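May I ask for a protein sequence together with how it folds?
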Amino acid sequence: MHVKEAAELAGISVRTLHYYDEIGLLIPDEVTEAGYRVYSERNLETLQEILFFRELGFSLKQIKEIMSDPAYDRQAALELHRKMLIEKRDRLDQLITTIDKTIQHMKGEIKMTVEEKFQGFDFSRNPYEQEARERWGDQAVDESKAKLGKMSEAEMKALQDEIHAIYSKLAQLRHGSPESEEAQAAIEEWYRALNRFGHYSLEAFKGLGQLYVDDERFTKNIDQFGEGLAAFMRDAMAVYADRRMES
């Protein structure tokens, strides 16, 4: 199968396949005299594995390290992919149910409790840990995990409630200026909350805000509290960080 056919089959761009070849992640079994890449059935199986890893948030660097390991077991990896995708599906189903109930609540058809409004949100696990490690190093992430690991179930629930409350507060402010006193006060609460279970410098805090917009997974997760919230938080976090770095 030529590169264009393989790209169309997988729903990705030709440039993506070229890049996978350049970094040694997926090298086609054949290249014609004219320079055209030809992908074998084995290549397509490898591409499927790569895309499963990508769907679950793994970086290309991590995928290459995992798949190049002599001990890599394709069947075991697929079984793990299945388990993780089922967990993801269940969480999305719960969020869809919460959205449906919220719409009914807004129409006056049902009455939601405060707890029901936040069913499906779970910040106790970080699906983007690899990106965090690559951007800020293992030590910061390990410190954060260690602090979270020492929390009791009640403390973890209190932290989740605090995070939900901050997100909800920021969502109400998102149509205003990120430089406003109210927005900056709420962002300071967010900065302090993050540093209770990790260590974020002002520079890292600003970078995290940018990641909220650059990574569509972050954007979708945050914007569930209100469309445009991720971009608003990015701007407010940048203002907060810049002001304190200048002072």
Summary: The chain has a mean pLDDT of 84. Strands lie at 30-31, 37-38.
